[in-house]
């Protein structure tokens, strides 16, 4: 069977695409194949998953931008007449109301909506719009998927849903003391207390809050370093704040890195003060390497372990700093992260088998 995934983009730094590609790499392709249809314009300099998708046996299609609903539906109608799919999985829930009739008219029997977040949007007006567009969702969708219970309860309220965990290749992220030693040497971070953050530089990730926390960390432990991985339209503003607070010798901005998993080994504690999340992939990856994390309590506790903690964004920067230092100095057994995350349902090899059975059940 072939599942058509409709998502806004196929770029490499998309969290949704990261989840889908983890499943696609590990799913039994004799039983299930993924195809992808996206609608956002992609910067020519951005890396995408197109080549990998095609190597894995999937197809990639570009359709008209969603800004022109009439044109979008016309192109989608033409596409579905030439490419029949009985199952379509939509990763931007608010899109369904625009394409529902087109899907049904082209004999799409199984419409899946997948909830990846616990907030409608970063922007207030967009949030109001997206909420309004989803008012019919529960009556239009055939199967409800979510990345976590929190994301499912947010979108579907009291309706039943299936949790498709944000599972990863645990072997790739397991703790490796040799990588830690070599990279800390290379970056001149020996004998430093290293805090870190991985995420796009957008309002949701709350970098300004993070920098305020780190200022308090330095007051308590001047031997601390903060490393930031990720990029985005707020990067200039973040780097300006670093300069204004005389933190240029304490904060290292790496930008995008394809080997992020190596940097988890370097860190002693990660800080994730996001304004909202579904279930952050970096939280799964980092904890697989045994890295303690201080999460904002806006993030679902489904991701919590006994070596991480949750704080309110209303707590003081000093409180965040104290807990961050406590976890960084806790000397936990970093090797324990692998088994902990496997027991929590984040081993992609196991979860891919479950999802295969779910798709089989849907298409019977």
UniProtKB/TrEMBL annotation:
Pfam families: Glycos_transf_1 (PF00534). Residues 182-298 form the Glycosyl transferase family domain. It comes from the Bacteria. InterPro entries: Glyco_trans_1, Glycosyltransferase_grp1. Keywords: Transferase. One of its GO terms (molecular function) is glycosyltransferase activity. This is Glycosyltransferase family 1 protein. It comes from Anaerococcus porci. The lineage of its organism: Bacteria, Bacillati, Bacillota, Tissierellia, Tissierellales.
């Amino acid at each position: 069977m072939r599942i058509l995934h409709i998502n806004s983009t196929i770029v490499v730094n998309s969290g949704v695409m990261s989840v889908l590609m983890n499943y696609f790499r590990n799913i039994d392709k004799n039983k299930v194949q993924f195809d992808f249809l996206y609608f956002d314009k992609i910067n020519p300099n951005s890396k995408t998953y197109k080549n990998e998708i095609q190597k894995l046996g999937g197809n990639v299609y570009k359709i008209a931008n969603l800004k022109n609903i009439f044109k979008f539906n016309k192109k989608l109608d033409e596409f579905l007449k030439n490419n029949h799919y009985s199952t379509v999985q939509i990763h931007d829930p608010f899109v369904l109301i625009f394409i529902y009739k087109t899907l049904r008219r082209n004999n799409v029997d199984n419409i899946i909506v997948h909830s990846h977040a616990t907030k409608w949007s970063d922007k207030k007006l967009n949030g109001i719009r997206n909420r309004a567009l989803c008012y019919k969702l529960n009556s239009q969708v055939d199967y409800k998927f979510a990345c976590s219970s929190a994301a499912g309860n947010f979108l579907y309220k009291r309706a039943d849903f299936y949790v498709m965990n944000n599972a990863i290749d645990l072997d790739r992220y397991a703790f490796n003391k040799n990588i830690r030693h070599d990279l800390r040497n290379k970056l001149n971070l020996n004998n430093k207390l290293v805090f870190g953050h991985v995420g796009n530089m957008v309002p949701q990730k709350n970098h300004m809050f993070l920098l305020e926390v780190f200022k308090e960390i330095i007051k308590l432990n001047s031997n601390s370093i903060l490393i930031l991985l990720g990029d985005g339209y707020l990067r200039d503003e973040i780097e300006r704040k670093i300069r204004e607070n005389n933190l240029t010798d304490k904060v290292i901005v790496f930008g995008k890195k394809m080997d992020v998993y190596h940097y988890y080994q370097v860190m002693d504690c990660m800080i994730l003060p996001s304004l909202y999340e579904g279930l952050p992939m970096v939280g799964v990856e980092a904890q697989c390497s045994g890295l303690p994390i201080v999460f904002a309590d806006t993030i679902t506790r489904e991701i919590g372990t006994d070596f991480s903690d949750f704080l309110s964004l209303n707590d003081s920067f000093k409180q965040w700093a104290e807990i961050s230092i406590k976890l960084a100095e806790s000397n936990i057994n970093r090797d324990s992260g692998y088994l902990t995350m496997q027991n929590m349902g984040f081993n992609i090899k196991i979860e891919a088998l479950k999802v295969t059975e779910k798709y089989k059940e849907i298409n019977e």
